[in-house]
Amino acid sequence: MNAPAVGLTATASPLDARLNRELEGFRAADLYRARRVVEGAHGIGLVVDGRACISFCSNDYLGLASDPRVAAAAKRALDRAGTGSGAAALVSGYNREHAQLEEELADYTGRARALLFTSGWAANLGTLRALFGKSDALLCDELNHASLIDGARLAGARYVRVPHADLAGYASALDDAKAQGGEVGIVSDSVFSMDGDEVDVPALAALARQRGATLVVDDAHGLGVTDGGAMALADVYIATLGKSLGAAGAFVAGSEALIEFLIQRARTWVFSTAPPPAIAAAARAALRIIRSEPEHQTRLQANIARFRRGVEALGSGLPFSLSPSTTPIQPLIVGPAGPAVVLSRALFERGYWVAAIRPPTVPAGTSRLRVTLSAAHTEAQIDGLVAAIADASLGGS
Questions:
Q1: Where are the beta strands (DSSP E) in 164-270?
Q2: Model confidence over 109-135: pLDDT tens digits?
Q3: Which residue among the candidates 145, 147, 188, 243 is catalytic per the annotation?
Q4: 34-63+294-393 domain in CATH 3.90.1150.10?
């Protein structure tokens, strides 16, 4: 064994000492988060940390992440194209699977072109930084996803925080931004990931057209699930492949000029190794299923309605409030972080996995259980979760 460098000891570094103090603070405030290990496919029925449970915290809204047809498409591509793309798309990493997926996504969204990114985070950061700069302004919903917030700030544009889904606030901010000159972008999620509510995309699109602004919409939680207008109306349409499509990655869809410009200037695309071809093949298979089997969306909507009816029938006196969401995201707002963790743990002990979402993911005082519904859930599983929520909330053993 090599001797330690002269002057170094086994004591904790100043960095570790500082980080350990902060970690202890997270634990004391019930804000410490830990991973749980899932064995096998990430479907509805899971083995988590060695324990069987039913998952109600995945974004696999249409149940395609464990669909054997999607897996089979990936396996065939593995045999044809191997495991990795080996380089960025502009070098040698652009596989036929990538090209075909982009063509099919463009057709599905009704856009001229689509461009595949490694993740939703990469798509949002790369797109906003490429399209806007220091002389421009970006008007952003205060509850936007962190990737939109970081992308807008990294662009160097004037960052204007607009109250959540406030059309009058957008109009006022647009007037101010136009008076200062430069390009103006309106940036918003379509479905907000922690509340499950939807922005009025048609109204935002009309506002953008009237004032000469560019509308950028992240439809990560809407693609294949809701029809809020983003696909048809956003100037820059961004969505992920790891939620309703059960695969991984993301894409931007829009005009010929938009996609060609991003190919030249989106740094998170230019300087990233292209995704594995097998992932693109899986996404293609999932997209075919979405387009040819609308019963998945129909079943999802029925499951959302069944869950809401069940929770509403529990009556008052429960330690949470059900948000007025019509999407698969159904938050139970608890408030303090500690009780949210306790309720989540009680449900897990009853065989139902529902994650407790706490600050900084959500504002202080709004910790919640983020229930997410899937087309793959059965009526019995939904009814079982509702019964478990009632039992855990009333302190049943």
A1: 184-189, 214-218, 236-240, 250-254
A2: 999 999 999 999 999 999 999 999 999
A3: 243
A4: yes
